[in-house]
Design brief:
globular; Isopropylmalate Dehydrogenase; 11 helices; alpha/beta; homodimer; 11-stranded mixed beta sheet; 2 domains; about 350 residues
Chain lengths: ~350, ~350
C-alpha cells in the first residue's frame, strides 16, 4: 500500500508548511497526488490546499476536527481529543488506507499513537526512534534516539536488524555497516549492556562491524549506529548543539575577518544542508507495523517533501517485510512478555 | 604542597613537547622552577632540559628508567615496569613531595596508578574523569567522561560536589551552576539512575540547576555537567568528532568560495582555541588524594603549560580540602564497602 498519510496540522508552521511541502513533493515527482492523504480539520486543510493551487489535485482529506495544543501529555491528547490529526492518521494506516504516516506533531504523542494503534512488527519487542544524519562519507542512521532509555541487550540487537533493513531499503546499500556506540575500540570496553548486545549482534545476518567510538560517528564507515535511547539522544542533541555553536562562531569570525557577502553565502549554502537534520525527512519510528516518520516541530516545506520521498521509498522497498523476515530467522533470547 | 610532578615521558611527542611546555610555563610565570619535578629516564630528560636552555634552572628530575610502550594494559605497565614515569610520579605525590601529577601517558595507566597509589579522598567512593571544555559563555566541566561506565546514583551526586568545588577553585566562580545531563527538560524524564541522582543533588550544598539537554551543553549556563562515564565519554568524543568534521567542511567551502589566505588565517586563529580540548590543560582525575591531570596523547607544549597552570591553581585553591569538607557535611546513602 504505497500511500502516505500526512498530518497537516503537526508542527510549528502547520498547516502552511506541511501543505507547501506536499506541493514541493508533487512538483519534484517524489509522489503522485493519489499517493497522499491528509489529516486535519477539513475546512482549514482544504483552504490551504486551494491556496497552494492544489484545490483540484484530488488529494484526499480526512477530517480530524480536534486540535492539539502540543502541551498535552500523549495520554491526554489521545483520551480528550480522540479525533486529532495524529490519531486519525494512525487510524488510516491501521485500516490499510495508507502504509506510512508523517507528522511534525509531538514526538510522544506520535510514538504513543503509533505503538498502541499499529502494534509492533511480528517478532519485534520494542520500537526505536531512528535519526538519519548527514555524515562525511554518507548519511548514517542512529537508533534509538529516545524511544526507550533503558533497553535490554536483545532490544539493541533488534535495533541492529531494523536499522540494517531500513538503510538497505532506502539508501540502496546492499550490506550496510552496522556498529554499536561504545566508549573504546576494544572488545571488552563499555558497560555490560553493550557487551551483551555485541555478542548477540555478531550472530545476526547483518554486516556487524563492532564498536563505534563517539569521535568516528560523523566521519567513519558505519551506516547504522546502535545505541540505547538515552545515549543515542545525547549523541543527537549534542551534535546539534555543537554544530549550531560552531557555525555561529565561524560566521562571526568570517564577518570579523572581512569575508565578503557573496563568499559568506556560498559557504552557508554549502554547509547548511550538512547540518540540516531534516535532509532525510525526520526521525523514524522503527519496529511498528507501518512506516512512521516524525518530523522536527520546526520543519519547513523541504523537510515534509523529503519525508514523503523517504517514506514512499521505505514502502516501495518493503522495509518492514524484510525486518519481519530476518527477525523470524533469528533466535532471540526468550524473555518475559512485553520485555 | 604546591608542587607539580610532570611525566616527561608521557604522550606522542615526549619528552620534547613536555619539556617545551614546561619552558613555556616558566616563561609565562605560570610556575617557578622549584615548583616542578620531572619523572622519566634521567639522562634523556636532563638532555632535553639542556636543549631547552633549562639545564641550570634547578629543576628536579626523578629517575624512571622503565619506558612504557603505551600498548601495555595498566596492570602489565605497573607490574612489569614498576619504575615507569607514571608510577614514579604518583609515588612522589604519595610521599608528599608534590601535590599534583600531570601526564599525557595512557589514561588507563594513570587512572590505575593514581587510584591505587593515592587512594580516594575521605568520603569519596569513586573517582571521576572530568574534561574542561570551551563553551559559548564560559568553560564548562563535564564529569565523568569515562572512569566508571556504570556508576550508582550516589557516585553521580559526589561528582556534582567534586565538580562544583573544582570549578569554584580554579575558575573563581563563587557558585557554579551544576546540572545533570538528561534527555529532556522535564523532571521525570530520563532513566532511573538520573532521576535518583537528581533527587540527591537537590539536597547538596551546591547550586543545582536540574536537567541539561544535549543541545544546551555548549551554549547553556551550566558550569558543571554530571553524567555517567559512558554517556559523558560519548558527549566528549562526539563533540570532538563533530567539531573536526564541520571545521574541515567549513575551511574547504571557504577555499572553494575564494576566501583569501589572510582571512582564512584570522578565522582559524579565532576558532582553533574554541575547539582545542587542551585549552585548560587536559582531563582531571577528581576524587583521588592529589591533583591529577591527564593530557591528551597528542598534546603539544601549550597543553602542558596550561596543565601546569591549572594544576597549581587547583592546589592553591585547596580544591581537595574543600571537597572533603563538603563531603563530610553530606549524609550519603549507606552503601556496601567499595560501592
Amino acid at each position: 500500500m504505497s500511500k502516505v498519510v500526512l498530518d497537516a496540522l503537526g508542527g510549528d508552521h502547520a498547516p502552511q508548511e506541511v501543505v507547501a511541502g506536499l506541493a514541493m513533493a508533487l512538483e519534484r515527482k517524489f509522489a503522485r497526488p493519489d499517493q497522499v492523504l491528509l489529516t486535519g480539520p477539513r475546512d482549514r486543510v482544504l483552504q490551504e490546499l486551494a491556496a497552494r493551487g492544489l484545490g483540484a489535485a484530488g488529494i484526499e482529506v480526512h477530517d480530524a476536527p480536534d486540535v492539539l495544543s502540543g502541551d498535552e501529555s500523549p495520554t491526554d491528547a489521545m483520551r480528550k481529543k480522540p479525533k486529532n490529526s495524529i490519531a486519525v492518521g494512525i487510524g488510516l494506516v491501521k485500516q490499510g488506507l495508507g502504509g506510512a504516516f508523517i507528522s511534525a506533531g509531538s514526538t510522544g504523542t506520535v510514538v504513543a499513537a503509533a505503538t498502541l494503534g499499529l502494534g509492533c512488527l511480528e517478532g519485534i519487542r520494542r520500537p526505536a526512534i531512528g535519526a538519519i544524519i548527514h555524515g562525511e562519507k554518507h548519511p548514517f542512521l542512529v537508533l534509538d534516539v529516545g524511544a526507550n532509555p533503558m533497553p535490554k541487550a536483545h532490544h539493541l540487537a533488534q535495533y541492529a536488524l531494523m536499522g540494517s533493513a531500513y538503510y538497505r531499503g532506502t539508501f540502496d546499500v546492499a550490506e550496510p555497516n552496522v556498529g554499536i556506540l561504545n566508549i573504546g575500540s576494544e572488545e571488552l570496553k563499555g558497560n555490560p549492556l553493550v557487551r551483551e548486545a555485541r555478542a548477540m549482534m555478531k550472530q545476526l545476518p547483518i554486516r556487524f562491524t563492532g564498536n563505534v567510538e563517539g569521535v568516528e560517528v560523523f566521519s567513519g564507515d558505519c551506516h547504522v549506529i546502535v545505541a540505547d535511547g538515552f545515549t543515542g539522544n545525547v549523541l543527537l542533541k549534542v551534535s546539534e548543539g555543537v554544530a549550531e555553536y560552531l557555525l555561529r562562531q565561524m560566521f562571526g569570525l568570517m564577518k570579523q575577518a572581512g569575508v565578503d557577502g557573496a563568499a559568506m553565502q556560498k559557504v552557508q549554502k554549502g554547509i547548511l544542508p550538512r547540518v540540516d537534520f531534516s535532509e532525510y525527512g525526520g526521525a523514524l519510528l522503527l519496529g511498528v507495523d507501518g512506516v512512521v516518520t516524525i518530523c522536527h516541530g520546526r520543519s519547513r516545506a523541504p523537510a515534509f517533501a523529503n519525508a514523503i520521498r523517504f517514506a514512499l521509498r521505505a514502502l516501495d522497498a518493503e522495509v518492514n517485510r524484510h525486518i519481519v523476515q530476518v527477525a523470524r530467522t533469528v533466535a532471540l533470547p526468550s524473555a518475559e512478555p512485553n520485555a
